[in-house]
Prior knowledge:
The complex is a heterotrimer.
Chain A: H1 7-15, H2 21-39, E1 42-45, H3 47-58, E2 70-74, H4 101-108, E3 112-117, E4 137-138, E5 141-145, H5 151-158, E6 164-169, H6 175-179, E7 184-187, E8 207-212, H7 215-225, E9 248-252, H8 262-277, E10 281-285, H9 293-308, H10 326-339, H11 345-365, E11 371-374, H12 391-396, H13 399-407, E12 411-418, E13 424-430, H14 436-449
Parallel strand pairs in A: 2-3, 2-6, 9-10, 9-11
Antiparallel strand pairs in A: 1-3, 4-5, 6-8, 7-8, 7-12, 11-13, 12-13
Chain B: E1 5-14, E2 53-54, H1 55-67, E3 71-72, E4 75-76, E5 79-82, E6 92-95, E7 102-103, E8 106-107, E9 110-119, E10 123-129, E11 132-138, E12 145-151, H2 158-174, E13 187-196, E14 206-211, H3 214-233, E15 241-246, E16 251-254, E17 267-268, E18 275-276, H4 279-288, H5 293-304, H6 308-315, H7 318-330, H8 335-345, H9 347-350, H10 354-364, H11 372-385, H12 387-394, H13 401-411, H14 418-429
Parallel strand pairs in B: 14-15
Antiparallel strand pairs in B: 1-12, 1-13, 3-7, 4-18, 5-6, 5-17, 7-9, 8-9, 9-12, 10-11, 13-14, 15-16
Helix pairs in contact in B: 5-6, 7-10, 11-13, 11-14, 13-14
Chain C: H1 10-19, H2 26-43, E1 67-68, H3 80-83, E2 94-97
Amino acid sequence: MNLPLTIKETQEGLKSKKFSAVELVDTYLDKIKKYNDEFKIFLTITEEVAYKKAKEIDNSDLTLPLFGVVGSYKDIFLTKGIRTTAGSKILENFIPPYSATIIKKLENAGVISIGKLNCDAFAHGSSGENSDFGTTLNPWNKEYTAGGSSSGSGAVLSSNMSLISIGTDTCGSIRLPANYGYLVSLKPTYGVISRYGVIAMASSLDTVGPLAHTVPDVETVFNVIKGKDYLDATVTEKSINNKDSKFKIGIPKEFFVGGLSKEIEKNISEVIKIYKKEHVEFVDVSLPSTKYAISVYYIIQPAEVSSNLSRFDGIRYGGLRDTFGEEAKRRIMLGSYVLSAGFYDAYYEKAMKVRTIIKNEVDEIFTKVDALIAPVAPTPAFKLGEKTNDPLSMYLTDIYAATANLSGIPAIAIPSGFSDKKLPLGFQLMAPRFGEDILFKLGKIFEIATDYKPKVAF
Amino acid sequence: MNKYKIIIGLEVHVEPNTKQKMFCRCQQDHFGKIPNSNTCPICLGLPGALPYINKEAIDKIIKLGLALGSKINNFSRFYRKHYFYPDLPKGYQTSQLDSPFCVGGELLGKKINHIHLEEDAGKLVHETINGEKVSLIDFNRSGSCLIEIVTEPVFNSVIEVIAFLKELQLIARYLDISNADMEKGSMRLEANISLSSDGKLPNYKVELKNINSFKFLEKAINAEIERQSKALDSGEKLIQETRGYDEIKKTTFSQRTKADSHDYRYFPEADLPPVEINSNEIEKIKLELIELPEAKRKRFAEKYKLSKEYIEILISDLKRADYFEEASRLSPNLIMSIANLMVNKNFDKEFPEPAGLIKKILELTKVDYANLSNVEESIDKVIYENPDVINSFKEGKEQVIGFLIGQVQKMLNGRGDPRIIQQKLLEKLHE
Amino acid sequence: MIHLMTRLTKKEVLHVAELSNLKLSESEVKKFLPQLSKIIEYVSQLSEVDTKETKSTSQTMGLTNVYRENSGDSGETLTQEEVFSNTDEYNGFFKVPAILEGRTNK
């Protein structure tokens, strides 16, 4: 059967009995079985769970908000009774005794869980090449990376092996795979979606977000998983009142400089033209402190990583600490260093202060504009192995992502075309904290103006 | 030995009697539970788990701080303190650093540096199984609330230390914060001990750990003081180290610790928003504080004129103190007998109601209760002689009944049955 | 302004590895030394930013006073079986080779 590419299509199909939930699962599983070994998208396929739920859905009155939607999750979300590895050998056999809050929310909303997705080990990376279980290939061209660290979360949708997926974004890790996959994804405001049951990378930066083929679908999933959780003290239910028209978008000049591919620059100027036709105003803005964003990020993140990975001592679960991969070890070392006696003030404390400067600058900009536009990465997807020898150049891929994570603001990645090499192109919009609504509105404007249609690689 | 000044600072851990643990909802009281049956993803340090502050612990530490004269910080937050040890499941302890809940304070003239909240670790026991030396870990206690009181190095003798701890224990019981029982582990002590030959603070201190009873406290500290004194006498240089007390050998011994492990790499706990307590809230809690032991001692001395020893026994248990006061209110001229029978014969255990004790006293002193007509006569007289007090009562000040009962007893030379007096008095007042 | 030693020494790498409870092989130390040095050198650029009057940000959502009153049940408490679902148990305990060193802090 031809798999639907939106929630609406899926649910209408089920309601009109065009197909059943079981048939949906049949078709997705066929796809998975055919291509997963090669593309390394799933680490665990939960066939039994999927069929059980599909049967339940077929026998239900089809009213749950996400009924019949087949979903899969980055293997960093704990799923009770189902192996969860974080993409790392150290958790190769870990079976959690509890599930993450958002998993419970999704399943209660009618989602059919079909499996756990490959990712960079412990979310350390931006290409998927740091997974201990093989690199996820980009369904659009298997010589290229799928983007990371939520590599499987992007590839699973571009290869049509699920309808929605969930990833985490600590510095672009949801936006990049969407950008390389011709998908929509949301990095929400920090503190809007529960992190309970999500293997922690950097506690003050981690966010949980949905990926889907359209902006309305991302919005629907967001509305299901957001909200207070009595198990996560950092979640709040704020949202800002905003307008429906007369949007003003800022173009940060620091983002459109040397290093950005000409192709992407051209594509984004096309996007801007399209928005202008829809009466969206654009102004040039400046965020001078963002040049420090990477340094701030690469002090705070490893520090928090070194702390969050301290619990892996092999006593209660998992392997011994020498099972950590190279990237994990490097970040732990870096983190311990910047927190150690004699260096804390110069590095960690300093980074926390510069973070304030970045945050204040971003907040100030949003008193003048409703959103910001930016590339998601300096180039389209790169070839496997192209950047792995030089850790620092990998880090520079994060420059467009870091601003949002450091200041806690939301960002949405939206597809906007294809490169000469037929690889997906896209852009991102950022909004003030708790301004997801602005992003959804602007995203829909773009989709309607371009008569956007979801596309999958195969 | 007297040529050295003894300098001791204390770190006292008190386990508050909260219902739940510090950052999760497992039971705080793990006594008698089978191992590893009182843990959850949070206190077991499973991947993905997050902490959530238990408010009851904050309420208790603030009460304690106010009782000890500390300043309650308007802004307070938690930090991560990193070190690796098998009974510390996250590889860090969530504790406090630069903004603890309470700063300063004093008890029995000894200055307190600060009081902070933290979580406890699990328990480690060492065993030999089939010839192999192993350590067994039970995480039931992991994540439990702990209040830590850190004093300045202002103790100069073991006696001072013991007095301080006993008073702290009493206050903890009065405030219903903890039973602070050393033998049961709900109060633990670490003493930092050094000797000074020139009166100034020396450049080393020896941390004496695992002191778990008042009995061994005295022995352990004295043993350590003796060891240090002998060392200094023979010109030996003393180093900063951690030591434990060997109850059998009656000496202290060095506990090897990893040299680097004191770099705790503290940073603020991002998973827990900070706590802001405004001055109004603090005032409110201050007003609700009950009378503390020292104030009660003073008041008992003034009001009841009992000996120091008697007072100490009566106030050592809040319930007994209240019982004594209630009994004394009913029969003001039997105070000495009441005190005697409570202190020497524990008669309050036999008579759960103070009135019952009074009756027993009268029986023992073979005094018959005054008859009813005498009682009523005395009541009428007292009402007649105290019009202002009667008015107070009628206006709602019902507590003056105590005074009136006392007056009636006086007239009856203490031979009135307090229950009858109260009953008849109220009848007449409500006429 | 603090003078930062941005070139790491082997001694420092070994010290940090010990702090992190990681046993590095000789080749790992050799590999990490230049990589970590490069990153530290890069991030040291922050020393040029004036932060004298700046407060630090450790959280961006601006929440305070998030706590839980006692709720009736024990929430997430696990059964012994669940606790040991990922490792062996010995009479209900976790068993590790004897720990010879004392705790630094309790």
